Sequence to fold (337 residues):
Amino acid sequence: MNIKVVVVDDSALMRKILSNMINDCQGMEVVDVARNGMEAMKVIERAQPDLVTLDVEMPMMNGIETLKAIKDNHRFPVIMMSSKKNNKITIEALELGAEDFIEKPISIKENWDTFKNDLEARIRVHFPEEKAVRSNEKKNKLLPEQLLDKKKSLEAIAIGASTGGPKALVHVIQSISEHLDIPVFIVQHMPEGFTASFAQRLDTLTSVNVVEAQENMRIKPKMVYLAPGGKHMIVKNNYIKLNEDPKIHGVRPAVDYLFESVAEAYGENTLGIILTGMGNDGANGCQAIKQAGGYILSQDKGTSIVYGMPRVVYERGLSDQVGSLYQIADIIKEMTR
Fold:
């Protein structure tokens, strides 16, 4: 059975482009389109889609208002269609429950294949063929002895996330204790131009400082460093280093880059955390942290928007502990106070 998609966009050209791209993907079909939020709500009731692509800027009822109405009445995933100028609104949409967003390229004609492949992947990831939930995960107590033993010696926390990450990170960041005395490093797969707004938003939600990392920024305790979109981030000699080396797993920044450098810098005194996201970025980095004697915590399937990155870590035997998003937040709170 095909994945049924409704496309919502005030641009007739964009509706046509998205419809053609999606209909060209095996197992997907656009069952209807809408020009604005008000029309979208009627179309959704009639078409009963499996997923909606939603433009951020629309007349009569904008993307945020439409998203709220959808989430109040439906459970299907929503992917926002955004641009750099709408980065703050996009971050708000992710906090309100949008599962993902795609940045519209300046020239779709020149980036047709890349944009189409990205769109297809971000739709398909919400409909995995395997429906079975793993039931053999270890039911660990919140702070097992192995983790408690690291509390006094902990020197750094590294977090990696992708699809669904912004909303998860909001929850996690809010749990950090005001007594944090170590640095926290984050890689969230996000395009250039969006991470600055995201860092600013996170900074307003916690008692510690959150910044978008910059080249040669000296690493300080009580700070949270978010990797900028479009650049890999590593730590070296107590400084942040950024580069534009080739993408890993199709992404830049990559979690693996950060985790491997953190493992080298902080060794056994590292807590690595893998949150929701598609793909396998972070698994090699987790292995590096494990080999250095650090501790790996991965998000469970039940609270992951996409159980991809944490699943690979778990299935490779790299996760010391599997926890829900809420348990992970509680663990971070305990480990940082």
